[in-house]
From TrEMBL:
<dbReference type="GO" id="GO:0045551">
    <property type="term" value="F:cinnamyl-alcohol dehydrogenase activity"/>
</dbReference>
<dbReference type="InterPro" id="IPR036291">
    <property type="entry name" value="NAD(P)-bd_dom_sf"/>
</dbReference>
<keyword id="KW-0560">Oxidoreductase</keyword>
<dbReference type="InterPro" id="IPR047109">
    <property type="entry name" value="CAD-like"/>
</dbReference>
<dbReference type="InterPro" id="IPR020843">
    <property type="entry name" value="ER"/>
</dbReference>
<dbReference type="InterPro" id="IPR013149">
    <property type="entry name" value="ADH-like_C"/>
</dbReference>
<keyword id="KW-0521">NADP</keyword>
<comment type="similarity">
    <text>Belongs to the zinc-containing alcohol dehydrogenase family.</text>
</comment>
<protein>
    <recommendedName>
        <fullName>Probable cinnamyl alcohol dehydrogenase</fullName>
        <ecNumber>1.1.1.195</ecNumber>
    </recommendedName>
</protein>
<keyword id="KW-0438">Lignin biosynthesis</keyword>
<dbReference type="Pfam" id="PF08240">
    <property type="entry name" value="ADH_N"/>
</dbReference>
<comment type="pathway">
    <text>Aromatic compound metabolism; phenylpropanoid biosynthesis.</text>
</comment>
<keyword id="KW-0479">Metal-binding</keyword>
<dbReference type="GO" id="GO:0009809">
    <property type="term" value="P:lignin biosynthetic process"/>
</dbReference>
<keyword id="KW-0862">Zinc</keyword>
<dbReference type="InterPro" id="IPR002328">
    <property type="entry name" value="ADH_Zn_CS"/>
</dbReference>
<dbReference type="InterPro" id="IPR011032">
    <property type="entry name" value="GroES-like_sf"/>
</dbReference>
Length: 359
């Protein structure tokens, strides 16, 4: 079912589980009083997009227009909008709706609402139950509550991935006290999420150690991203020497991996936060965390408030993702490369520069 009557939109969509994207014309919904209409400038490509377009999770509603790391400019606002005006530079992250009435929403944790509406491939019950279509398109209409302001001075292409990857690591760092100068943070995996975690950790004044299976990433981690140390997780001697040295660990790896050796790196009462999503269950023996009073938590993106605070922090410290900017017609090649982790560290689509003439 396609909702008609709104602004004509043009993007790229997957039609089936091959995940191949191709040009797609559709209509956005008619804006309501509390809606913001946004011209999409840039949109990052996340691993979640890859899973959705290939129906890895069995919930794809084709045609799927992916994209939830959106930076754009406001082109119109409803009569009830108070926070934004035409011309404002804004962002839209992983979700564009929630129930606004549950305990999680009431506490400002909309990302944990049972009725959260993903920006792409979600069911938007508040607007006719149509599937949401994301930022691989020239325009999007979003309730102002789920829109964030992009601070002046941030490079817009490098800001787009912060709307998902950035807040996914920033939010748990704030919640678990892994934002205090002098503390020691371990970052497992140096990909789209991990490299941003390193940047946030250093901006907080922390000692940061990157933990990786790949020795080839040492120079990048230390010389380019500013990590203090690099630990090869497959090296028993290195791991033994680092036992009990870390206050917290952010684990960004999305493939199965042993976490017992990682827990050994924590000090007593240390905290590990898992932000990756391995499909195979992780192994967590009690002896790895009970004797030391260690914690293992999960985290799913962040709230709207978290996202705004994260952008303000990024603006103050000049933080942006390391990106490879592409045109829309390269997106299928980019998806293939993403499957092989062949990107340093996030693809970002120049949407306006690709689709502007068609908009």
């Amino acid at each position: 079912m396609e909702e008609q009557g709104g602004q004509a939109a043009f993007g790229w969509a997957a039609r089936d589980d091959t995940g191949v994207l191709s040009p797609y014309s559709f209509s956005r919904r008619v804006p309501k009083d509390d809606d913001v209409t946004i011209k999409v400038l840039y949109c990052g490509i996340c691993h979640t997009d890859l899973h959705i377009i290939k129906n890895d999770w069995g919930n794809a509603m084709y045609p799927v227009v992916p994209g939830h790391e959106i930076v754009g400019v406001v082109t119109g606002v409803g009569g009830g909008v108070t926070r934004f005006k035409a011309g404002d530079t804004v962002g839209v992250g992983y979700f564009v709706g929630s129930c606004r009435s549950c305990d999680s929403c009431g506490k400002g944790n909309e990302n944990y609402c049972a009725g959260v509406v993903p920006t792409s491939n979600g069911v938007d019950h508040a607007h006719g139950g149509v599937p949401t279509k994301g930022g691989f398109s020239d325009v999007i209409v979003v309730n102002e509550h789920y829109v964030v302001r992009v601070p002046d001075g941030l490079a817009l292409d490098r800001t787009a991935p912060l709307l998902c990857a950035g807040v996914t690591v920033y939010s748990p760092m704030m919640r678990h006290g892994l934002n205090e100068a002098g503390k020691h943070l371990g970052v497992v995996g140096l990909g789209g999420l991990g490299h941003v975690a390193v940047k946030f950790g250093k901006a907080f004044g922390m000692k940061v150690t990157v933990i990786s299976t790949s020795a080839s990433k040492r120079q990048e981690a230390i010389e380019h991203l500013g990590a203090d140390e690099f630990l090869i997780s497959r090296d028993p001697e290195q791991m033994k020497a680092a036992t009990g040295t870390m206050d917290g660990i952010i684990d960004t790896v999305s493939a199965w991996h042993p976490i017992t050796p990682l827990l050994a790196l924590l000090k007593p009462l240390g905290q590990m936060v898992i932000v990756g999503g391995p499909s195979k269950p992780l192994e967590l023996p009690a002896y790895a965390f009970v004797p030391g009073g260690k914690g293992v938590a999960g985290n799913s993106v962040g709230s709207v408030g978290d996202c705004q605070a994260m952008l303000e922090f990024a603006g103050k410290h000049g933080i942006g993702a390391e990106v490879e900017v592409i045109k829309m017609d390269y997106v299928n090649t980019a998806i293939e490369r993403l499957e092989k982790n062949d990107v340093r560290y996030r693809f970002v689509i120049d949407v306006a520069g690709s689709l502007g003439s068609a908009a």
